[in-house]
Amino acid sequence: MSNHLPHPNHDRGLEFDLSTMISRRSLGMFFGAGGAAAALAACTPGGSGTTAGTSTSAAPESASSSASAATTTAATPTASPTLTRAIAECGVEIPQETAGPYPGDGSNGPNVLAASGVVRQDITSSFGTGSAKAEGVPLTFTLTLLDNANGCVPLAGAAVYAWHCDRDGRYSMYDSGLANENYLRGVQEADSNGQVTFTSIFPGAYSGRWPHIHFEVFESMSNATAAGQVLAVSQIALTDAACKEVYATAGYESSARNFPRTTLQSDNVFGDDGGIYQLATMTGSASAGYTAGLNVTI
């Protein structure tokens, strides 16, 4: 069972979140206002899933065949099918969300971004002076970053800081007994396809929230590790089918109790639109592990 008490404004800590976000107007200036008109012509609203294969659940898609040739030419000759699909579906920017009360990015106390070792793909274990390892069903998740203001080209070289709770709903660096641990937190640099991939465990469900993964997008790796200004702050929603299967396994007993109490529609973050643009596409099983993917249009 989670040792942290529900935060009075859990995952709605806007006071410190707003200080780390670039406004939509500023973001458009950053990427160049000249590309905005081309983006509108080149992109159509679409779903948020990215992982290939049979999905247990996926965000509704509305990409139409009328998307212009600019979306196709934006992909490089070596672009993966996942990236090609992501570009075709690009058009709706990822909803900006709260970083919540446990970001560990220096906005409300602890700052893992300044620690040596935070740049890593596998985030299951603590690094530095920490020694704990998070146990649970394996989960690999990939984010595909796209620049909406410039024809949905991949945001190569951008950086992502991702973090989430453990299978008991606890957050490293914050919960009782975990102040000196930093597992399930890490930074990755986007490759030429604008993609970052993390190896982790399936997070638990705690009171008041739908199962999710937090992330912040930075302009560059150096900007991320300096805990600088962020381009986007959002969350990944995990699918109902995957959660039900994982939470029926040993070790997720507290999640099995908490999960039925919150729906995507009642969740205080995803409830605005049911998480339509944040719901991951997922494949796998509790026995073999899961993969998740999400398109992040900025």
Describe this structure in words.
Keywords: Dioxygenase, Oxidoreductase. InterPro entries: Intradiol_dOase_C (IPR000627), Intradiol_dOase_core (IPR015889), TAT_signal (IPR006311). Pfam families: Dioxygenase_C. GO terms for molecular function: dioxygenase activity. The protein is of the alpha+beta class and about 300 residues long. It has a single domain, classed as Protocatechuate 3,4-Dioxygenase, subunit A. The protein contains eight helices and nine strands. Strands 1, 2, 5, 8 and 9 form a five-stranded mixed β-sheet that branches. Strands 4-3-6-7 form a four-stranded antiparallel β-sheet. Strand 8 and strand 9 (about 290-295) form a beta hairpin. The model is unreliable at about 5-10 and about 10-75 (pLDDT under 50).
Care to count the β-strands?
A: 9
Number of domains: 1
Net shape: globular
Number of helices: 8
Q: What sequence of helices (H) and strands (E) makes up the elements?
A: HHHHHEEEEEEHEHHEE
Largest sheet properties: 5 strands, mixed
Q: At the fourth CATH level, what is the homologous superfamily?
A: Aromatic compound dioxygenase
Residue share in β-strands: 15-25%
Structural class: alpha+beta
Helical residues, percent = 10-25%
What's the rounded overall pLDDT mean? 80
Low-confidence stretches: 5-9, 12-77
